[in-house]
Amino acid sequence: xxxxxxxxxxxxxxxxxxxxxxxxxxxxxxxxxxxxxxxxxxxxxxxxxxxxxxxxxxxxxxxxxxxxxxxxxxxxxxxxxxxxxxxxxxxxxxxxxxxxxxxxxxxxxxxxxxxxxxxxxxxxxxxxxxxxxxxxxxxxxxxxxxxxxxxxxxxxxxxxxxxxxxxxxxxxxxxxxxxxxxxxxxxxxxxxxxxxxxxxxxxxxxxxxxxxxxxxxxxxxxxxxxxxxxxxxxxxxxxxxxxxxxxxxxxxxxxxxxxxxxxxxxxxxxxxxxxxxxxxxxxxxxxxxxxxxxxxxxxxxxxxxxxxxxxxxxxxxxxxxxxxxxxxxxxxxxxxxxxxxxxxxxxxxxxxxxxxxxxxxxxxxxxxxxxxxxxxxxxxxxxxx
Length: 385
What we know:
Largest sheet: 7 strands, antiparallel
Number of strands: 7
Strand content: 15-25%
Radius of gyration: 28 Å
Distance between the termini: 62 Å
Strand order of the largest sheet: 1-2-3-4-5-6-7
């Protein structure tokens, strides 16, 4: 009984030590990655502001609203790298023998870290399903409305301006404050095309919407499609941009201010998949972190990053496929199944006699790290392109 309680005491100490080290490492990585992402977003938004596409005064508000979205995507990566670094240090510095001496295995290390993984899972699930989509929508609404206002307010007479990535073109012969004279506006999106020629365009604002008031003009619809073409004259035509709905009524201009959101089903699968990666990454981090003493504690970082970027890339690919084909029944779970099979391979590699195969020996090759770097670069280029 005495030996049993002493062994349990040692296991509790080892569990707390491992969890504390993973927590500190993961938190440090999360903070660094978060600052890098926020910094890159600041640079991007300030570039837009310098081009007159965005109001500088809303940049801090937009960045703040995107915090939950950033954290949601960074938590799984930070936790995975925290496990990899912590476990590999135990093996590299031979502290793992302290765990082995009390009869602990790699699965016991997974059990030790499971409560921490559950906390991260709960936080990520709450952010991904409820908070991040809401704050992201608010930031998009803020950007889209103010971007359009800024573009209109920065216009000069007798110059053609492109709005929102080429979805619309606007020209005015004369501009006097919020009144544009001899206006020509072309809008094209998936719903069709519209061309407005008017004597005046007056812009009025209030808290709920931005009103585009056209005076004495002609509206042409369907001019670049096989759809029925419509031409109508008007003395007054008003197109309101609703701040809460982020759309323009009456002229098919909604896509000018939209972000081409994915289908609701694709978004739901994506929001559930990000927290679910934590379960797979917990196992992979513990098993991949087992290094030989001479390999060093950071030798698993490149293979780990390759696994993570491959995981994320397949989820993105699956999300795009699901968005284009919402009726697909499999969703994104096939991606988790692939990496679940990789976990199973680690679990049963001894019984399957996988340890000495050429595939695993390839990891020991001197050119392996160059291969991993090349693949990582290709994947990252694909993700950001």
